[in-house]
Hints:
Strand content: under 5%
Largest sheet: none
Structural class: mainly alpha
Order of helices and strands: HHHHHHH
Amino acid sequence: MNWIVTNMKWIMIVSGALTCTMINVAIAPQAALRSMFGETLEGPLAEIVVRNWGGLIALVGGLLIYGAYDRACRAPILVVAALGKLFFIGLVLAHGGRYLAHQAGVAVVVDLTMVAVFTGYLIGARARPQG
């Protein structure tokens, strides 16, 4: 865990940049849905909801990058990011293997890895003496 604590700035920058790639959902929602899930949603309401989803995820990515430079904000940003990622993972896995063959499966693995690293940091930073 010391390695995670020591390198958290760079871990958060990379994690944030990867998370920010979800801005493509806000730009091209139908193409992103086909790529992520192999399906699309139709209609103006779907456009609003899916674009908003992509924008919110990209904002979390931006917060991760911000938290890389502001240690005082790291813990709450990491908790929010981890909870959001766990929620997504839970929703995808609730459908069994239906979406795992698409990019959603890759996202589940990457997000689960990020959650594990974020949790490792939160535990390791708390155990590390301040000073």
